[in-house]
Amino acid sequence: MAELSQTVSSDPSSFPVAPSDIHAAAATIRGAVVETPCSYSRTLSNICGCEIWLKFENLQFTSSFKERGALNRLTALTPEERARGVVAMSAGNHAQGVAYHAKRLGIPATIVMPVGTPMVKVENTRHHGAEVVVTGATLEEAAAFARSHGEARDMIFVHPYDDPLVIAGQGTVGLEMLTAVPELDTLVVPIGGGGLISGIAIAAKSLKPSLRILGVEAWLYPSMYNAIHGGTLPARGDTLAEGIAVKSPGKITTEIVRHLVDDIALVNEAELERAVATLISIEKTVVEGAGAAGLAAVMSDPSRFAGQKVGLVLSGGNIDTRLIASVLTRELAREGRLTQLSLDIPDRPGQLAAVAALLAEAGANIIEVSHQRTFSDLPAKATLLQLVIETRDSAHLDEVMAKLGASGLSARCT
Prior knowledge:
Helices cover about 45% and strands about 20% of the residues. It is of the alpha/beta class. The strands form three sheets. A seven-stranded mixed sheet has the order 1-10-9-8-11-3-2, with helices on both faces. It has a four-stranded parallel sheet with strand order 6-5-4-7, with helices on both faces. Strands 13-14-12-15 form a four-stranded antiparallel sheet. α1 crosses α8 (about 165-180), α3 packs parallel to α5 (about 95-105) and α3 crosses α8 (about 165-180). About 50% of the residues are buried.
């Protein structure tokens, strides 16, 4: 994990969003948006060596914090603007927030989503009644199309993060966290375009100036890190945290982050996968990659949070079930609980049974079996036996491998 440190000093009055705007947003959205729990996690606290408090924004109706800012922005439209309709671009969560609340308020909505947006987010957006256009290889290309599409039809563009009303709406997350747990020392918040962390930072620092704010980005999309740090790290590729895969952060949000956010951490894909799997395993809650970024940052560098009271924003839970299955299976492999073995054995009756008996004696469970006779450089009277086995942990896997080796079998993990 990489990070950046900077001196935090600012004049909050210079920002286009004031604490009073966030309090006003809280009043505006009250009753239409869930005031989600901010709960203490005993098990995660024990694992991480600090007090962990989780803000469950994945429990919103659209499974994301994004509907806070979307509703605050839509509510501010005049009757004439509502009649013209709105257009937005989004990789999924902002789309659903705009679509859901636009339908509630009787506002026509068109959502532009980039190619590669998880299907669950596309279908949920359509389900909420919006017209969905899937185009553009990146969020930036989708944004350009959305603007031109909206201008041609005289629609109001609802930006996902670089809008004062949207930022104010997202800032209500911070108000709720500090109301629920005023003793928090640090807030860890995912960063995409910067709307969530900007709103939270303004709200939280106004209530508790000593509070530390840590932003988290995926290593593959370090756009805010680059903007603040003057870096040139590349932003590219497929990340589990597609909700924060933004190449160009907002202008408004960048200045707020520059002055109010203490550090920005970068987490890799394995750390994101581990955090998603951990939240499912321990908290029994489904969180998308972006929503797990905060926990990924803490678990990858627990020493920097030791003894602190840390609030994590689980920003969203929109993730394909197929992807969840893949993440969980890959985590089992990392933990040594699921392993693929390759063994060279004589191609004659009884050999598979002998291997199976050895594995049973070692307490391993066979999940899959396959023989490879054709595409192999082994002698014609031999075969490549490939197995997927389940073990308790990496230490147990070592015991299994030792037992196979002691029996004269050449086994290797593949």
